[in-house]
Amino acid sequence: MKTLLALQSRICLLFILFSFPISGVFAQEGGIRDFEIRENLIKNDKLAIIAIDSSGHPQESINGTFQFVINGFRQELRFNDGVGIAPNAIESSVFVFIKHQNQSGSTGKLYYVVKSAKGINPVFIHWYYLILIPLAIVILGYMFKRLIVIAILLLVGLFIFNYSKGLNLENLFDTIVHGIRGMVGY
Predict the structure, then answer these.
(1) Alpha helices (runs of H) in the chain, residue ranges in sequence order
(2) How many Å separate Cα 112 from the centre of its chain?
(3) 11 Cβ partners below 8 Å, 6+ apart?
């Protein structure tokens, strides 16, 4: 009788463990779900990637090597206490698109890193700005026919500036896709 109860309890425990999706329960332990970018504490013009939870608090339990894509280049970043340091120093102000993919999907973020004499300052760029600003310029040009040439010149200037600072069309569309996925919850 005791062996039958022990067998039933083991079967019940196995059923409970395998009835939950693995990516929802077990992958959250020790994985990077979200991140943010800051300047490295030793001010060596390198970016520090900090693993955060859904409420924005740093996850100090993250340790190990994780794969990131930084502006199209695959990098293995070593995380200690939730912080990984990008290997390359920032030489001038530039757009930086950072993407991390794990079992539950991918997370990508676009930053504009401003380099000054004081160091670097990463500024997060929301995906909807990449749609709203050009759309506003087009609408203003359409509403005021006299401004259509100025609107076209502004759009071309905006595109040239973004491209010269490292924001190509692939990173632009990747940022918009990740933003829409995050909004929809996919």
Answers:
(1) 2-19, 22-25, 129-143, 148-164, 169-184
(2) 13
(3) none
**111's tokens:** 């930053």
Residue 148: count of CB within 10 angstroms of its CB: 14
Structure tokens at 138: 């087009």
Here the tokens at position 10 are: 């083991």
The sign of the torsion formed by the CA atoms of 155, 73, 49, 29 equals positive
Grouping H, G, I as helix, E, B as strand and the rest as coil, residue 144 is coil
C-alpha–C-alpha distance, residues 85 and 185, integer Å:
29
Question: How many CA atoms within 13 Å lie on the side-chain side of 97?
Answer: 24
Which 3 state secondary structure label does DSSP give 145?
helix
Give the pLDDT confidence score for residue 30 in this predicted structure: 54
In this structure, the strands spanning 94-102 and 83-85 are unpaired
Q: Which residues of the chain have pLDDT under 70?
A: 1-30, 185-186
Q: Over the stretch 114-148, which tens digit does the pLDDT of each residue have?
A: 998 888 999 999 999 989 999 998 898 888 888 88
